[in-house]
Write a structure and sequence with these properties.
globular, mainly alpha, 80% helix, single chain, Growth Hormone, Chain: A
């Protein structure tokens, strides 16, 4: 905890972390808000899941592009234009009719115009603290972003039930524009670094650490969004209960991140964290008691932030600074693709088999994610998950023995 206390005393760290989290708060609202709004308009979970999926596709396709533009053309114009377009598109979705085609098109536009705040801020972090503080800063950011998933779902369900299903989208539009402006005002002279040579777009994908992080991030988010659909299908008729249930999982992730996010987990630790996620999801589907279900969701969340933090740190340590914005943009894309896959699959399965169908989808996705670092580990050492030479040497020896 001392490492976190030292970080918040560092100039700009607290302001930039808080402002970009506030600006990204709609990410915790939109999926559930769109799911509730579109289901209310059309009466179909399949259509609602498809609209959320198209939003995720838009984010996945556009984020590496807008992140690269932010590093090449300029951070300020990129964030300003994307925030304004995103706000307008959310308002259009809030006031749209029940046509599935129109809703899906607007969902795609909402996703494609999400400001690339996450890749930008993660590219700036190494400039803000000494090298030995970067690990703790990534852990703090990854852990703190769980507040998005604690506040967002509760806000979405509360505003939808208290006012209308369109109102959370209106609030999200306002928060995106105001929050992006707050972030830009706090950056001062900080800008993503640009190298003299121009890297070919997409060349960062040949980096093994980036590919592993993308696969694992995709599975993590797919599992969570599938679980979210299952929770809404199981508890959505009970007022804000579904939002509270999702928030409980995020509280577990918040606590797990504070306790373990700044530590060097290694491959075994990452796999254990992902396995805990899988077990919690399965128990939620098994239990009928509300208290036990909430406890299971809390358990599932404990492994989320530590695993994600380890992946971000691994990528940060393995890439050049001039491709950092693009690399983290690709990670964001993987997460959004995961969101699309998880939501769409769970929506279709829920239509056919009820909420437990979505839980099965979430559990299978979590299990596959837990296996991915083991498979990657068998093909070579994962140096970025470790920090000391002795641990790296031991990992190399074990990898050689396995091959």
């Amino acid at each position: 905890m001392r490492a976190y206390r030292e970080l918040v005393r560092t100039p700009r760290v607290l302001n930039l972390t808080a402002s970009q989290l506030f600006a990204r708060l709609p990410l915790g609202i939109m999926s559930l808000a769109i799911l509730l709004h579109v289901h209310g308009l059309t009466g179909s979970y399949a259509v609602a899941g498809a609209v959320v999926a198209w939003m995720s596709v838009g984010q996945a396709v556009a984020m590496p592009v807008t992140a690269r533009i932010a590093g090449r053309v300029g951070m300020v114009p990129t964030l300003v234009v994307s925030a304004l377009v995103n706000g307008v598109s959310m308002l259009l979705l809030a006031w749209a009719g029940p046509s599935p085609a129109t809703l899906m098109a607007l969902g795609l536009l909402v996703g494609a115009s999400v400001p690339p705040l996450m890749p930008v801020v993660r590219a700036l972090y190494p400039q803000m603290v000494p090298r030995d503080g970067v690990r703790a800063l990534f852990a703090l950011d990854t852990t703190a972003q769980e507040l998005i998933w604690v506040i967002g779902p509760v806000a979405a369900t509360f505003l939808a039930s208290a006012v209308s299903t369109a109102f959370p989208l209106v609030v999200s539009a306002a928060v995106t524009v105001v929050g992006t402006g707050w972030f830009l005002l706090g950056t001062g002279g900080l800008r993503p670094r640009i190298a003299e040579q121009k890297a070919v777009f997409g060349s960062v994908l040949v980096n093994r650490a980036v590919m592993l992080a993308m696969v694992a991030s995709l599975g993590l988010v797919a599992s969570f969004t599938a679980l979210e659909v299952g929770i809404v299908a199981a508890l959505g008729r009970e007022g804000v209960t579904a939002g509270v249930a999702i928030a409980i999982a995020s509280v577990g992730s918040l606590i797990g991140g504070l306790a373990f996010g700044h530590r060097r987990l290694g491959v075994g630790g990452v796999v254990a964290a992902l396995a805990l996620l899988c077990v919690g999801i399965v128990l939620f589907g098994v239990f009928d008691n509300r208290v036990l279900q909430f406890a299971s969701l809390f358990m599932s969340g404990l492994g989320f932030a530590p695993a994600l933090s380890a992946l971000y740190i691994m990528v940060s340590g393995e890439i050049e600074e001039h491709v950092a914005t693009e690399a983290f943009g690709w990670l964001n894309s993987a997460m959004f693709v995961g969101g699309a896959i998880g939501t769409a699959l769970a929506g279709v399965v829920t239509e056919a088999h009820g909420f437990r169908g979505a839980i099965v989808v979430a559990a299978v996705l979590a299990l596959l994610t837990a296996v991915s670092p083991i498979i990657a580990r068998m093909t070579g050492p994962l140096d970025g998950l470790y920090g000391d030479p002795e641990t790296r040497a031991a990992d190399d020896d074990l990898c050689t023995a396995q091959r």
